[in-house]
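Q: What residues go here?
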């Protein structure tokens, strides 16, 4: 005789609070649209090879050689996957009125972002450890960071009914990232643009700000209206920082074209 399955445990208080995030963001920005506003881990292009060559002379097999790039690609793919889960959380909470399902999607989305962000730096370490530095890896690394952060920011914009106060800085960030990536792909030597310390700080701040709504909800700040526009202000700061960190790359490309 088949044993009777045990009842499914009720979600914990933390899970219930986390799952309400997307529905509260949607509710906050559902009223009439707000007035129109006027108003890179590792840095971009950071090479995985040191100035004196590979950091490790340890022989490695093909699997270990491809592992760093696999981690980088997985981080990039995590962006659309996590964004999809975030949108599904909003749909489950607002449209289906299914709090448990919304909880599950929101928690999964937050975990995807956390794991992907923690992987930033792991690929570079693996490349040095297993003597697997490559120009392809140095090119893919900043692209993966941009896809990860950009996907989540676009999902937040959609959750808030395209709130212009949030949509404008996100558009600036995406436009800047697309411009720099396009210049890098069209450069004679894509890895020629050296990393700046500002770009490293920008990348870390982008991931922190992107994950902030998940963290705020988990720690009990469930009233989104109390912190939403502070968070939007942080996104505007990121937009300004992305423009600032783009200037050295634009100057480097201009100097390269003059040669």
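A:
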């Amino acid at each position: 005789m088949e044993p009777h399955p045990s009842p499914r445990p009720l979600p914990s208080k933390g899970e219930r609070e986390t799952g309400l995030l997307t529905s509260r963001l949607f509710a906050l920005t559902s009223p009439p649209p707000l007035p129109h506003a006027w108003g890179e881990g590792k840095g971009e292009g950071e090479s995985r090879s040191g100035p004196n060559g590979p950091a490790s002379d340890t022989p490695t097999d093909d699997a270990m050689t491809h592992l760093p790039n696999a981690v980088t690609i997985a981080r990039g793919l995590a962006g659309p996957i996590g964004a999809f889960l975030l949108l599904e959380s909003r749909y489950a909470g607002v449209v289906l009125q299914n709090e448990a399902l919304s909880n599950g999607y929101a928690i999964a989305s937050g975990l995807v972002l956390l794991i992907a962000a923690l992987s930033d730096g792991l690929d570079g370490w693996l490349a040095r450890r297993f003597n697997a530095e490559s120009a392809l890896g140095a090119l893919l690394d900043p692209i993966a960071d941009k896809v990860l952060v950009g996907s989540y920011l676009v999902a937040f914009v959609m959750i808030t009914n395209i709130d212009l106060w949030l949509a404008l800085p996100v558009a600036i960030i995406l436009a800047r990232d697309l411009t720099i990536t396009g210049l890098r792909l069209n450069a004679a030597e894509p890895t020629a643009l050296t990393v700046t310390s500002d770009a490293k700080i920008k990348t870390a701040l982008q991931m922190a700000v992107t994950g902030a709504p998940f963290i705020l909800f988990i720690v009990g700040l469930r009233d989104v209206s109390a912190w939403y526009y502070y968070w939007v202000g942080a996104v505007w700061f990121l937009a300004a920082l992305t423009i600032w960190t783009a200037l050295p790359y634009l100057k480097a490309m201009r100097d390269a074209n003059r040669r």
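A: Context that may help when evaluating the design: Confidence is low (pLDDT under 50) at residues 34-41, 43-47, 49-60. DSSP finds nine helices and no strands in the chain.
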